[in-house]
Structure formats: structure tokens, C-alpha cells
Amino acid sequence: MNPPAFHEGERALQARAGVAQRMAEIGPRVIRDFMPEQHREFFSHLPFVIAGTVDAQGQPWASVLAGSPGFLQSPHARQLAVRARALPGDPLQQTLVDGAAIGLLGLEPHTRRRNRMNGIVRDVQDAGFSVDVSQSFGNCPKYIQAREPVYLEAGEDAAPVWVENTQLDDAARRIISAADTFFIATAYAGDPVQAGRAAGVDVSHRGGKPGFVHVDADGRLTAPDFPGNYFFNTLGNIALNPRAGLLFIDFDSGDLLYLAVTAAIVWDGPELRDFDGAQRLLRMQVLSMRRVEAALPLRWGPAELSPYLQEPEAR
To answer: How many CB atoms lie within 10 A of CB 304?
Structure first.
């Protein structure tokens, strides 16, 4: 028998949301073990891709890779070739090894298209690597802010400037408080034989109005979980494994903020009233941060807020 499209953590959350039967029918149709032609073409046009990996200590990290459009190519439907190096200071410099699980998120912000691909890293070399496809599926365009990225050819190598700490510094707080977007990497923790292709690493997008992530005085973060496709890839992983990695991009400066966090799901309570349209909350405690200055070789056009964020969602 074919394994289910979703692992036990995802199925548990789908059951709690009352969509288990619908997802059991939809999942096998839309989550494939190959990339359809439109996804293969889509990735080839992108100047960046978001990646999720796990380090030797089991900590997930969300990362970004960038290059001239065409740096992502699919030689056949079950493989994606990535011709880019990890950016200075990016956790990928340690986590990108042959046989590692990886999650990839292809995002075209100005058209609000996004497609996901999870798989296994192969053939790591100085110039790049390949990914064997485990799961390939599309995502809805909700909560993506429209801004167009343009890749800048790298100049002479310079020593990267970064700051590491076990808690947020003032600059990190400013980036988070102004953000309308962040990315979250999570990893499955269960029986990989039982989960089959649903095991591994996932990376996803979260968007909201600027300031939608709240930062407490002690550095705890709270973010809304808005209605989506009910796959619960991220929250299903967190239900089994609370460790997650966050990436915030400062679209003005190119600074990158990497956070290692533990995450918990808040299902109800008075706090939800502070987040218009949220069905749940993600509460995250920061374990460590790394802020790398002017690291991303992309320039971004002006942002246009997602139409789903123009007015509060009906609850």
C-alpha cells in the first residue's frame, strides 16, 4: 500500500480542524513524488529560493539561496539542480551535505505564486548541489506581499559582518517588528518508515501586516496562523517536534536574521483577539540568533500588501 500523503502530526491537526477526510482525499492528488512541468519551469525563473535544513544537533534552520534566474534547473521531473553557494554566515554552510533532508520553497512575490518541493540533497559541490524529489506541491497565494526581486551579481568577496547571541539584540527586534514576512523551517520527528515521503524537512512562508509578529520584553515571539490550505505541514511538524528555524529578511538593507526557536501552538484564548483573522497562534521562544549584515544580493521593488490583509478576515 502507498503511504499516506500526510504524517501523523499533520493528520492529527487536520482532524482537530475537522478537515481530515477532505485532506485524505486531496493529499494524494496534489502532493506528488515528481515535479510537474509548470513547477519545473517556475523554479527556472526565480532569482532566489528558501531552504530548510537541520543541523547536527537536530536544530532546523531556514535559509535563502540566490542567483541569476536559471540558477535553478530541473533536468528531469524527479530532480532539481541548484547552482549556487550558501551565503556568508548562512547555516547551509554546515547543513548542506549529501543525503541530508531539505525543504525548498519557490516564491515569486510579485505574482504571488509559490511552490514547494521537499527532498534529499545529492552531489554537493563547490558550485551547487542537486535535490531528489520526495514531495512536490503548490501553495495558495494568500498573505504574500507583492514585491519584485532583482538579483545583483556579486562583487569582490568581503568578510561578512554578523552578530550571534542567545537573545535578540535591538537590531534584531527592529527587523522583526517591521517585518511583513518571515519563513519557518520545521522537521518531522517520528517513524520515517511509517511516514514515508511525508517525513523530512519543510519550509514555509508566513505573511501579515507590518508588525504582525509580536516581540515580548523577554524575546518571546507570537505570530498569527491565518487560514490556509489545511495541509498543516508546519504545525504538524511542530506538534511532534517543537524546534524550528526562522528567517527574517530586511528588504531594504539585505540583512538576514536567522533564529533558532522552540515553538508551541496556541489554539484558543483571549490572546487571539489581538490578531485579526488568526485561527491559531504560534508562540516561539528564541534560543539563539544570527544577524548577517547586507548578506542578500537582491534588491526589491515596493511592497503591495496582500489583498487578504486589506480587511480583517471574518472569524
So the answer is: 14
Q: Is residue 233, in this structure, part of any structural domain at all?
A: yes
In the three-class reduction of DSSP (H, G, I as helix; E, B as strand; rest coil), residue 25 is classed as helix
Which structural domain, as residue segments, surrounds residue 143? 8-300
100 lies in a domain? yes
Q: What is the per-residue DSSP string for 160-207?
A: --EEEESS--HHHHHHHHH-SEEEEEEE--S-HHHHGGG-SEEEEEEE
Are 248 and 259 contacting, i.e. CB atoms less than 8 angstroms apart? yes
Please report the pLDDT score of residue 1 as a whole number: 52
Q: Does the structure show a pLDDT above 50 at 97?
A: yes
CATH code where residue 253 lies = 2.30.110.10
Name the one residue in this structure whose C-alpha cell is 477532505.
Answer: 22
Number of domains making up the chain = 1
- The 10s digit of each residue's pLDDT in 49-66 is 999 999 999 999 999 999
Contacts of 135 (CB under 8 A, 6+ apart): 31, 32, 33, 116, 117, 118, 119, 197, 198, 200
* CB-based burial, 136-159: b 16+ in 10 Å, e otherwise: bbbbebbbbbbebbebeeeeeeee
The counts of H helices and E strands in the chain are 7, 17
Classify 265 in phi/psi space as left (phi over 0), alpha (psi -120 to 50) or beta. beta
SS3 279: coil
The C-alpha cell of 2 is what? 502507498
* Confidence tier at 312 by pLDDT (50, 70, 90): very low
Looking at the domain assignment, is residue 80 inside a domain?
yes
Q: What is the pTM of this model?
A: 0.95
Q: Within 13 A of 258's CA, how many CA atoms are on the CB side?
A: 25
Distance CA 121, CA 50 (A): 14
Q: What is the dihedral of CA 170, 173, 178, 183, to 10 degrees?
A: 140
Identify residue 142 by its one-letter amino acid code.
K
Cα–Cα dist 291/164, whole Å: 7
In a domain? residue 312: no
